[in-house]
Amino acid sequence: MIETANNPLKIERPTMTLRDMALEKMRAAIIAGHFQSGDRLVERPLCDQLGVSRSVVRETIRYLEAEGLVEILPNKGPIVAKLDWENAQQIYEIRMLLETSAAQKCAELAKDGDKKKLGKALGQLKSAYSSGETNDLFEATTLFYQCIFEISGQNVAWEVVQRLNGRISRLRAMTLGTRDRHEAGYKRMEKIYSAIDSNDADAAAAAIKVHLTEAANIARTLLTAELSKSEK
Fold first, then answer.
1. How many degrees, rounded to 5, is the angle at CA 108 between CA 125 and CA 143?
2. Pick from 41, 180, 144: nearest CA to 136
3. What are the b/e assignments for 183-194, b being 16+ CB within 10 Å?
């Protein structure tokens, strides 16, 4: 009799549902720009590409709509939500308010154990930047910010950020590869960590402001240029 614990043929139960896997793939494709702003999302091709049923595709699109990555247009159906500066500006303003507050509070409250946890998240972020894998980078960045919000005790604020996370990642993907950055993204995160590690609330808030202001300026330049192209 074969011992199931050591049976290499044993099929393990998947940890994700088909819907979850389809959602993850579609979200990543939109964030990475595989699907561009305004692209129609037609069920049949998506079923073929993802290898799932129409019901799974429809459910996936509903979730992406709730995340702000997809719009449903009358008589046209689902399209990739258009990313413009007007909406992006609001996202950066919300981030500035919530992340500045969280970083300040985190710096005030952080104990040795908290700093160790945040330092570990920073290490994962460094590895992600080194690997160049986009999904790893987004996951590590989200984890770093999640630690800051958890240490600060601002759980409701983190829920708001999570609802915007798809759109935040989309903007992040757009700004990361530009040459307009005065400093690499990891260096910015390192400065935020250093301020929190020193329990310097003012420096933590300042580091967040510099980081987000630069990212917002890059996004505005890119999105404005994109709008000008489309109007020609």
1. 20
2. 144
3. eebbebbbbbbe
